[in-house]
TrEMBL record, chains A, B:
Annotated organism of origin: Oceaniradius stylonematis
Pfam family, one: LysR_substrate
Superkingdom as given in the UniProt entry: Bacteria
InterPro entries: LysR-type_TF_proteobact-type, LysR_HTH_N, LysR_subst-bd, WH-like_DNA-bd_sf, WH_DNA-bd_sf
Keywords from the named record: DNA-binding, Transcription, Transcription regulation
Annotated HTH lysR-type domain residues: 6-63
GO molecular function, one term: DNA-binding transcription factor activity
One of the GO biological process terms: DNA-templated transcription
Family: Belongs to the LysR transcriptional regulatory family.
Gene3D superfamilies for this protein: 3.40.190.290, Winged helix-like DNA-binding domain superfamily/Winged helix DNA-binding domain
The name this protein goes by in its record: LysR family transcriptional regulator
Length: 298, 298
DNA sequence: TATTGTTATACACTTAACGTATGACTCGAT
DNA sequence: ATCGAGTCATACGTTAAGTGTATAACAATA
């Protein structure tokens, strides 16, 4: 009987090499010698009959086959983990890493509160909390969970809505004169928007359910909502903001609502994750905790 | 770095042991010594932290955990195989085993024709063709594909309809006098039915789309349609049969249609298989070939 | 009872994966 | 240009774990 090293271990090594972009770095992470890691990668390539990684002394890159293999290897490893977890002798022990990518503003505020409470409740879970506003592809970051405000640009993922985000119009006091409940009073006022901003106007809904389109003169756009808020507070323009993000400023009076009762279309906070047939228990628990914690956001 | 034997190999050994109900028999199948097989099973149990099999010298049985593990192990192994297949150097080579469980009548006739043609087209695929009318659970037989006429009694499976089966009323010549197109003329005629037969009557549709219920005096019932046909040919009763199953007898005149143009509700031939996220190529090809081959059945 | 088959385990053997060492290469600093 | 540091692949001796053989205990059957 031919003995062979664990196929799943080969996949783990490959995934770590791909994530680190270096055989040596991955070997150090995994507690192997560089030679062993190099050989395990070669073994996997031989077993699968395809080159997965193009080697050079200072730069590794994935082949097309390597990219496919990376996604599928992650899924297979997740399947094994979920499978093995079902039989764990200590069925109530919830442990292991969770890598979560979350937009900066959300990840510094309400979602962070939820995550901290979750981690306190499950101290053996290690949270890797990555704040990132870049519209990365899920497959590039290799995380367990991707929190997004708004649409998830990857149809291969399972998307679970967690909460709705109410958005209101805010501005620094003095930037806007009395709008008298008319959205068009802001048509020529500078606007600080989130990038990408499309359509040139904000569809708004008023206190009585009436609708109006506010034409937007965008003078500042960023992919980071916290900077957009800073610009608004500094009087650089009005902004459309989640209420929870500006609650303190509204309380302090550094921001006001020039259009009280008017709201922009709400956005959904979504949890996105890979469609492994079986999720680890800690991921499911985390998603549930996040959904509960964000439920009072509206 | 701790070296470990392949986790997937441990699962393969476990599945074979469970299917054979014997560590020794599985070891012989796999080309291992009995001692190695025994140890691999013990290793898997230790790794998962659960007892999977209750041992005795002459009888092995699965624990509850073992039953779950069996289903999931099969899926994980299928996932690996589909995954590895994607990278095979010889991408056009279609090889490996396929275990198919099929009702006896279907498996001796039209489905067999399709399977034989498929095997001729793909000589490196080994078909394990199991005829079985027993209403087994899918998980008991451990096959790749389960062909069923009618509903599939397992909601965990993916069910793909392949063809519709037209069913007509047939009887031996002389059993029934002229029915004059009236289904109730057969109400007191003995009927040979398939087991289980429920409802006590046959809903029929006539040549002009008219409907009638034929009350059934069932004097013979079997789970094997071929025996039901034999009873019909022998004059033991009329029967509701797929047209393709009695085509030869109708041609030879050993069976006649006492109700020409009347038909019973058609049944669907379904292909059922486990919801692994990725199917092996040969299974997909086989299902497609079966669907094409049965398309002209109606 | 004897025979045959089962599973678990001790023991010596086998072998593949291990780490160390080395060479070729690349990059950045001087 | 040289030097130092880091990269990856591979040869070689070592290590560790899985292997089969042998054995004991048990169970079923004739």
């Amino acid at each position: 009987m031919t003995r062979s090293l664990d196929r799943l271990t080969l996949l783990e090594t490959f995934v770590r090499i791909a994530e680190r972009g270096s055989i040596s770095a991955a070997a150090r992470d995994l507690g192997l010698s560089q030679a062993s890691a190099s050989r395990q990668l070669a073994d996997l390539e031989e077993r699968l009959g395809a080159q997965l990684i193009v080697r050079s002394t200072h730069h590794l890159s994935l082949t097309k086959a390597g990219e496919r293999c990376l996604a599928d290897a992650r899924l297979l490893l997740a399947e094994w983990e979920g499978f093995a977890e079902d039989f764990a002798g200590d069925a109530d022990r919830i442990a292991g890493p969770l890598k979560i990518v979350v937009p900066v503003a959300l990840g510094q505020t309400v979602a962070l509160d939820c995550a901290v409470a979750f981690q306190a409740a499950h101290p053996e879970i290690v949270l890797d909390w990555i704040l990132d506003d870049a519209p990365n592809r899920f497959s590039e970051v290799g995380c367990d969970l991707w929190l997004r405000v708004g649409a998830v640009p990857d149809e291969t993922l399972i998307v679970q809505p967690l909460a709705e985000v109410e958005r209101i119009v805010v501005a620094a006091p003095g930037l806007v004169g009395p709008a008298d409940g008319d959205p068009q009073a802001l048509a020529n006022v500078p606007c600080a928007a989130l990038h990408p901003f499309e359509g040139g106007r904000w569809p708004l809904t008023g206190p009585l359910g009436e609708t109006a389109d506010l034409d937007a003169r965008v003078t500042f756009a960023s992919n980071n909502i916290a900077t957009t808020k800073r610009v608004a507070v500094a009087g650089g323009g009005y902004a459309i903001m989640p209420r929870w993000l500006v609650a303190a400023e509204l309380e302090a009076g550094t921001l006001v609502e020039p259009l009280p009762g008017w709201r922009a279309a709400s956005l959904t906070i979504n949890a996105a994750f890979a469609p492994a047939r079986r999720q680890t228990r800690r991921l499911r628990l985390f998603i549930d905790a996040m959904k509960d914690g964000l439920a009072g956001l509206a």
